[in-house]
Amino acid sequence: MKKALAAPASVGIELFVLAGVAGLFAGLILIGKRVHAPMNVHFSISLSLWQLPKYTACTLLRGITAYALSLVFTLVYGIIAAHNRRAEKLMLPALDILQSLPVLTFLPGLVLLFVHLFPTRQLGLELACVVTIFTAQAWNMCFSFFGSVRGIPSPLREVTAIQKLNAWQVFRLLEVPASMIGLVWNSMMSMAGGWFFIAASETFGDYKLPGLGSYMAAAQDAGNARAQVGAVIAMVIMIIALDQLLWRPIVAWSERFKLEDVSSAEVPQSWVIDLLGRSRLVIWARSLLPSRRNRPRSDRLISPRSPEEEQRHRATLALLTKITGWITITLLAAGFVWGMWALFELLRHVPLVSASHEDWRFIILGLLASFGRVTATVILGAAWTLPAGILIGLNPRWAQRLQPVVQVVASFPAPMLFPWVVGGLAILHVPFSIGCISLLLLGTQWYVLFNVIAGAMAIPSDLREAARVYHLGRWFTWRKLYIPAVFPYLVTGLLTAAGGAWNATIVAEYFSMGGREQATFGLGAMIVRATNQANFSLLAAGAITMAVFVVIVNRLVWKKLYRVAESRFSLNIG
Amino acid sequence: MTAPAILEPKAAADIAIAEVRNVSVTYGQDAGTSRLVLEDVSLAIRSGEVLAILGPSGCGKSTLLRTMVGLIKASSGEVLANGKPLVGIHPGVSIVFQNFALFPWLTVQDNVRLALNGLSITEAQGAERVKRCIDIVGLDGFEEAYPKELSGGMKQRVGFARAMARGPELLCMDEPFSALDVFTAESLRSEVYRLFSSKSTAPASVSGNAMSGLRGVVIITHQIDEAVFLADRIVVLAAKPGRIQQIIQNDVPHPREYQSAVFRRLVQRIHDAITKEQLPDIPETPSVPPTPGGMPVPEPLPAVNIGHVTGLMEIVRDHGGEMDVFSLDQLTDYDFGHTLAVVKAGEMLDLLDTPKNKVILVALGRKYLDGDSNARKLLLRDQLKKLGTFQFVIRLLEEAKDHRLHRDVVIEELAIRLTTEDIERMFQTVVAWGRFAELFGYSPNEEVLYLDTEADAPAALPA
After folding, report:
1. Are B62 and B106 contacting, i.e. CB atoms less than 8 angstroms apart?
2. Which residues, in sequence order, are bridge partners of residue B41?
3. Is residue B3 a part of any domain in this protein?
4. Is B1 inside any structural domain?
5. What is the pTM of this model?
6. Does the beta-carbon distance from B120 to A164 stay under 8 Å?
7. What per-residue confidence (pLDDT) applies to B431?
8. Which of A358, A448, A514, B166 qualifies as a cystine partner to A221, CB 3.0-4.6 A?
């Protein structure tokens, strides 16, 4: 998943936003704690292979619902931030921080909240699941949309001003089409990244939802090998089908929205579009649709409103917008204050040091342990994917064939395979605290590979020719050309992998399967245990600590790396 | 001189379609200081005329147009539309843009149709008008095409069709032919000229429908030939800050031909006027020797490379050491502002002299060309040390800790003293010249300017 980094905001604003998000989180948990009612949901998963299509459809539907939610959010949030400079100062850092937070830290809070609001129905769980996936999908789409709207060349905006287009027309005719390509690519990546969280959030502790993720978990619990294989196959088929039948055609269609005039040599192809274009059935069906050109010319006025009416209409709209803005700000301010109180209320119950393992000291220790694992994951992952990715990317034939494969592999939710890996580790007598790293790797190394391949493909051929003509030698070429050239892509991949690894700690450090429990010392495990024991204060403390830490590391390490990558290693000329 | 036939006869001739009075426009810059782009400009576009605004790149002509039309707010002064203060965008204006500004996801037809927004005509009339305008520009048959499929010239025709479809009072063209290759530009320009100058070639229905109501045309250009070819009145803008240098009435009779004597004379006259302004015989500000202990005064630098100056000097030497500015200009395909800037740079460095309209290679310039690269650097270093700007920067560095200064500091200091310059660009020029002459160094990683202390010892000159 490629993440976009916003322009650096002041530390003050970032702290403010971070506090706001923490407060929001604490508030959610507090509500869940207050509205405590016994959980009545127990859904049994049938392991019959014939149920697989139904479960696949459930999972798919959840993903699509979350995506629709993300899209609406993106359009609304992005437009407000793009048009209002003052709002932007707060809204962009907020997005940036939300993007850095490990999504699964939200999950316990959300589950508790929604389940307790809808105790006897499945609706609560479904909502929790969909909202969790939304928090995984929405942020990078929003950044892309914002960036595209801001990047619209001013002559086009001047045209809309001269032709007196109103705000809705500008949105429909200019802003959305100009952002279309970015939106499509980010939508693809969002949906792909979402599968990881669906699998993880369909079965959380005792809660189960009908779907592929819980099917797999149930199959692993029962030791039913056939069902497990069936689930994996179903997942792979769904991902590939979505990619080929939905995304590739959309990407090919969205070519027309490219803002540059030069038609590029490499136009994305889609066999689906080719097929549909030539199919006689489709051509006939299209001719049935009422076409705008065929409509009889009407005597309707193009602009029913006179200029004075138009002026008044706009003034009213402006006033309404202002009022709504003020109401929103007031509500947000009130929410912020309440969130701070909720935060204090929850966290004060966590002692600094205590006899049991439920205090701040252990939270910090757990954090360091998990941080160690995440760092090891990133380093180990880069160690093999960097050379492999460069080798693949330099060879166009391999790259062409392998890149889509890697994309699909990256989309596959690794948690589904965790029990197999854990079993393997047990057989090899690898201590789980270290073996856990392989689980983290399984989910995240593909992002690095994917990005490095893209980076190697982008190395201009004349640089490679110069290396050969001047007899630079293999080792020297790698050191001075290939590795620096892919550096920006590597940083993107590492950043994504690190984020994925933090998320994975929540599902990898604590394992409960068929009565067996595998756990290791780490913050992820603490969070899961706290949820299971309904220790809300500890849960909030652990989750917020992880979130704050990730944001700090993000700012101190990744942003600096990114800036270095952009300024020194970027291949953009001029 | 009769007004171009396509424009309405002097209906309401007294009221200017668009007017600015004592208008100034200021932009904010990154260094926190502001830059004066236009200073005290007063101009009225009268009914029945084609007006050209002529000037080098960066002189503020696009800004002037956008201020008159209402796209940019003036920092001071009045902007009027048909005699009344302008609120929002001028209601009767269409613009043809330099880079076409077509929406890539709309067909030709839909792009033109955009122009009909807000007009009180029926759908049927609108469709008719769109079809007619596309027809006039010669793109009949391309209604369903996307801009991606069109060549540059065709895209600009769509731009014209869109501008006409709105039925404007004032048609504005912002360097409409600059983004086209020479041949396409020439062909399109002739077509536009024919449209303006002869009613018989324009289909009767055109002036009946879309173009009725057109009272004036403004064209922005940096080519003197183009201005003389198309316009009745030519406004020459000087740069930094943008202000009106001269307004010239174009009396060349129609039909105009580039090579006719009358045409060439006017072009020469305009060129001379510009040259005199850019390269005055008497320096406008006598170089102020720094008062003892006082800070040297920085002065604006032309944004050119040393390489350009060297090349120009070589060319002048090949032509016997003396050339006419105008002929020099013809040799290059720069817009004329750039040639003059290079000449001005050479003059500042005392390598060239520019009496009247000539460029003469002086003795120091010959010595420069004859020397090897080391000799050239030393010579250049001595010359740069005589310039106020470089004295200023060197003094700043000498007084700084470790003789190092961050670029933002230097830029701010320059910006305070030079309010009409694009300081970022000027800083790049200062760094480029300074590095070439090894006066100081610049580290892009840390963005720091530093004094090159080792290089102060001059290398031995070859005997």
Report:
1. no
2. B23
3. no
4. no
5. 0.78
6. no
7. 92
8. A514
